[in-house]
TrEMBL record:
This is Carbohydrate-binding protein SusD. Belongs to the SusD family. GO terms for cellular component: cell outer membrane. Its main location: membrane. Keywords: Cell outer membrane, Membrane, Signal. Gene3D superfamilies: 1.25.40.390. Residues 99-225 form the SusD-like N-terminal domain. Residues 284-545 form the RagB/SusD domain. The keyword Membrane applies. Pfam families: SusD-like_3, SusD_RagB. SUPFAM superfamilies: TPR-like. It is found in: Cell outer membrane. Residues 1-25 form the signal peptide.
């Protein structure tokens, strides 16, 4: 198992490095191995397929420095004013444009990956006769999933996209100029593709192949796609198939301990993840997001906002309450008796961490600094640090790097999809039944049933913030709910400035942006890159971006 894993990770690492260093060097396996070798047996074929899993890793937010929650209201990048892509897009009216889209959408790289996946699918029809038919069908389904997954990511960002999905031949010069499909056509293709391949994929793999695409992953991403497409019946169908795998077969479950979701490799809550392994495939999450006091010159690149922290309920006299700084009982000891997800998500002043306590007060080891200050690089400007996904063991993350996994989808999201889809159908009883399963897992009581979409959405928003913070949901949720303008535009986010006074502390909620966020109507879609419109004359730019 270890030998196989190291070989495949080494190949994937090589391909990812080549792709990140020079897009023109997107070397595919067919450049390195002859078709005769690749298609000789299923073991060789699996090495080929494992290299194609780079399609997942390019959207794994743990692998870079860019958390999409940093474009929303719950994460604030801490570097010098206007010094990161997040702060530029959030606050510079002219920064996001057809000439500058890479931060939000790696369009060109994604289509290069899609081409590689298309090559495999086409080659399977030409050279796959030496592979057992059932084994070949599964592997074709894996690759088709990866292709549909990439289109899912593109459609979330751009709306309608150029679908290059011919399974018989690659698009050639005659197909260079190709129109974008409509948003509905694009989503319909993804949903139907995932529905078809789900039944061709296994429910699980043996230990050697753990982490490969499964039936649950296909139905799960189908359900998420249908939610974005506002196809509620399809969303319920896909999510229910995953729920059946959980309840009838024990494939998935909500872990009793929320913190273990992010610390226990291959746990049963995970449906789809990107896995890393030292020394062959690593990332720099700890290097960039650890508390400043952990290492010199690094850490503190982004911090939870007070908007996130105040979303976590507090318990007073045995009752769970919404946290409120204006409540003297809450404000006197703001980090005591918060709900469990808070402690798994946020590092706060006084938190136990690697044999010490976090010091985010002014002048502390991890100390707060005002965002507008020219020295704000690598410091917390909110009074908090990210806890979720950090490695709690003492290691040299600068030299050794990190290898925690990134969760693309887990079972809690399936329950949220079911909840939201049933709410859209008007069945608020089922909607709250699924929402309360997530709350009950961490010991929170049921939410009272609401019977309007507006009231329900307030409950859903808060639950998703607390459940999925740092996991890349919030920004895209705000966009698809059409709430981004009201939540972000002309708004500022907040942190807390903590002052040590004797043995106690005083807390002041402060503006951590020093400038308004900017989210006009056209930001609901990322523009098509200008090079695509220039090179593909049939591809039209969105009207609001023309």
């Amino acid at each position: 198992m270890k030998t196989f894993k190291n070989k495949t990770l080494a190949m994937l690492c090589l391909l990812l490095c080549l792709g990140s260093c020079n897009k023109s060097l997107d070397v595919t396996p067919r450049d390195k191995y002859s078709n005769e070798i690749v298609w000789k047996n299923v073991d060789n074929l699996d090495l080929y397929i494992n290299s194609l899993y780079g399609a997942l890793y390019m959207y794994a937010e743990i692998g870079g420095v860019s958390l999409t929650d940093g474009y929303a209201d719950i994460i604030k990048y801490s570097q010098t004013y206007m010094d990161t892509e997040h702060n530029r897009i959030n606050m510079r009216p002219s920064y996001l444009s057809p000439a500058s889209t890479e931060a939000l959408s790696p369009w060109a790289t994604t289509y290069e990956k899609i081409k590689s996946l298309n090559e495999f699918i086409i080659d399977a029809g030409r050279y796959g006769d030496k592979i057992d038919a059932k084994q070949l069908q599964i592997r074709i389904a894996e690759v088709r999933f990866l292709r549909a997954f990439l289109y899912h990511k593109l459609i979330v960002r751009h709306g309608g996209v150029v679908l290059r999905v011919d399974n018989e031949k690659l698009d050639g010069p005659a197909e260079k100029n190709k129109k974008r499909s409509s948003v509905d056509e694009s989503w319909t293709w993804v949903i139907q593709e995932l529905k078809d391949i789900a039944e061709k994929l296994p429910e699980s793999w043996d230990a050697v192949h753990t982490g490969r695409i499964t039936k649950g992953a296909a139905y799960g991403i189908m359900a998420r796609s249908a939610l974005y497409a506002k196809k509620w019946n399809d969303a319920i169908f896909g999510a229910r198939q995953v729920e059946i795998l959980a309840t009838a077969k024990g494939t998935y479950m909500l872990l009793d301990d929320y913190t273990q979701v992010f610390n226990l490799t291959h746990n049963k809550e995970i449906i789809l993840a990107s896995y890393y392994q030292r020394p062959t495939l690593t990332h720099d999450f700890d290097k960039y997001f650890s508390p400043t006091g952990d290492m010199e010159r690094y850490g503190g690149y982004a911090s939870p906002t007070e908007e996130l922290v105040s979303s976590f309920d507090i318990q007073q006299a045995g009752q769970w309450q919404a946290f409120d700084w204006n409540n003297p009982l809450h404000a006197s000891d703001p980090y005591l008796n918060r709900e469990p997800r808070f402690y798994a998500t946020v590092l706060y002043n006084g938190a136990d961490w690697k044999g010490r306590q976090i010091e985010t007060y002014v002048g502390g080891k991890d100390g707060y600094i005002e965002y507008f200050d020219g020295n704000a690089r690598n410091r917390t400007v909110t009074g908090y640090f990210i806890r979720k996904f950090l490695d709690s063991k003492p290691k040299d993350f600068i030299q050794e790097k990190s290898d925690q996994y990134w969760i693309e989808m887990r079972y809690a999201e399936i329950l949220c999809i079911l909840s939201e889809a049933y709410a859209h159908m008007g069945d608020y009883g089922k909607a709250y039944n699924y929402l309360n399963k997530i709350r009950n897992r961490v010991g929170l009581p049921n939410k009272p049933l609401q019977s309007s979409w507006t009231a329900y959405l307030q409950d859903l928003q808060k639950e998703k913030i607390c459940e999925f913070a740092v996991e890349g949901h919030r920004y895209w949720d705000l966009r698809r709910w059409q709430l981004a303008q009201s939540v972000l535009d002309a708004k500022r986010m907040h942190g807390v400035e903590i002052t040590k006074e004797g043995t106690g502390f005083t807390y002041s909620v402060v503006d951590c942006d020093k400038a308004d966020h900017y989210f006009p109507e056209r930001y609901y879609t990322v523009p098509i890159p200008e090079f695509e419109v220039r090179n593909n004359t049939a591809c039209e730019q969105d009207l609001l971006w023309q």
